[in-house]
Predict the structure.
Amino acid sequence: MSAANDANHIAFNEAVERFRDYLQLERYCSQNTVKAYISDIKSWNAYCTKMNLDPGNLCAENISRFLCEQSAKGMSKSTVQRNAAVLGSFTGYLVYDGELPAMPKLDPLPKVDDKLPQVMTENEIQRIINACEDGTPIGKRDRAVIELAYGAGMRASELCSIKLKDINKTGGQIYVCGKGGKQRSVPYLGAVRKVVGEYIEDHRPQMDKLGLPWLFLTRTGRQMKREFLWHIMRKRGIIAGIPVSRLHPHILRHTFATHLLRNGMDQRTLQEILGHSSIMTTEKYTHLDLEIRDVYDKFHPRA
């Protein structure tokens, strides 16, 4: 082992556990974020095991070979970039903690192509909502979930974490905890407020078997998880005749943002509602809306 490599060597397993604590206790990352970080670090560990390398030897040469192998295996540029970013955060923490003298210097990775988010039409949204109307409490719950996801632009994790006490029925607001533990107030008005109110008063009590505080409950009365929202979207979307490839909860958030911009909302207000820390993140919806309009102008016979 070279002197440079030896300088970048740490006790791996212990360092991973300390990094986990750092993410949770100092950076206040959500459980899902911590889980994703540790999962990517495990990919690095698996590669090192296969190649008979010490995962604690975090030198630029070994990390670069790991990332190159990921590319060679056909992984997307975004996945490779994400793994590089996670290892960068991990080694950055170790430098901050005094266990490594400096960050390993990696060669620049290929730029990830910008992907504009998919959106649904207003007709498709209405079809999914109609597909929930099966006369059951579960159907009413599913409609409330979809109405709130589209009508308030919440992330899946935010929807699952709403408690009854977070809902201001008089003011038409819901207090949510977003990425990084940031709190914000989200308006829910009009039809969304009516549907959610009816679910709380008339249908949620039939599912409240355990006395838990969460707004959305499973059939057995437990807290709904993010994976369950995928199931709801898939089930109701298939009934509505929407392609499965587009049936994921985040598409409702994308659609919410795009429709608001199209109807004249300014970016700063939308940024606050969505809980984006940077206006650059919000601006992608403007680009998407312009792209949709260009395609419409090009192909619609009456444009």
Notes: The chain has a mean pLDDT of 82. The longest strand covers residues 173-177. DSSP finds 13 helices and three strands in the chain. The CA atoms of residues 77 and 112 lie 6 Å apart.
